[in-house]
Structure to design on (226 residues):
């Protein structure tokens, strides 16, 4: 994702939208590293920001990072959790709407990379292909 | 090619992190790998390609410019394509 950002930040805006934890240590489906790192589901907004800051720092990410509110409204609107990618065209419509992660992540990144590459090379946004998601 | 490799590596890490937990640590019934794979494209109400993107305004807390404290997508649509990457540490 960082590579994608570095490759296309001159032609597209990119944001991480940090949402509620998917597999926090205190969740019903925790991942091992969440227990080891003691990452529990934040109860307050600033706690969520602190975990996001850890991700950004430890992942050496330079992508601008937005933080969803504790009402999880933006996440719920997009069904973004656990991970998902969307690309908004200049006309406000979605050019890429990724499948649900983690399994949908790789094909979503590939579809996004293809879209951005075509846009960068041609200067024109690719046509909307409603079958894009089905191919992921 | 490099992007694909990195993406595959990232997905592998996520996959292992999710599924490599010891059997004893599993606290409740979880979907099987086959179910997750089969359901990744299931219609869960998420916006689809061609839909008008839901727009929002959120705080920009990290990696923004000094004078950019929040992002209002209403103000940004139309200038450049916008990529949104949803996720969390876990």
């Amino acid at each position: 994702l960082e590579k994608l950002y570095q490759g296309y930040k001159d032609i597209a805006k990119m944001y991480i939208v940090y949402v509620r934890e998917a597999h926090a240590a205190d969740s019903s489906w925790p991942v091992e590293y969440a227990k080891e790192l003691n990452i529990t589901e934040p109860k307050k907004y600033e706690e969520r920001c602190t975990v996001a800051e850890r991700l950004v720092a430890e992942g050496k990410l330079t992508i601008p990072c937005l933080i969803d509110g504790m009402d999880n409204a933006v996440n719920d609107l997009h069904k973004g959790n656990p991970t998902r990618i969307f690309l908004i065209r200049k006309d406000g419509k979605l050019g890429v709407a990724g499948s649900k992660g983690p399994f949908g992540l790789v094909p979503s990144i590939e579809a996004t990379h293809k879209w951005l590459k075509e846009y960068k090379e041609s200067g024109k946004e690719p046509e909307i292909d409603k079958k894009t998601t089905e191919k992921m | 090619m490099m992007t694909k490799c990195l993406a595959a590596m990232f997905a592998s890490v996520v996959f292992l992190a999710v599924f490599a937990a010891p059997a004893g640590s599993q606290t409740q019934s979880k979907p099987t790998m086959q179910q997750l794979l089969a359901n990744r494209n299931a219609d869960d109400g998420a916006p689809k390609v061609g839909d008008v993107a839901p727009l929002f305004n959120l705080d920009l807390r990290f990696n923004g410019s000094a004078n950019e404290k929040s992002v209002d997508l209403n103000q940004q649509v139309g200038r450049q394509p916008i990529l949104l990457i949803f996720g969390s540490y876990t």
Summary: Chain B has three helices and three strands.
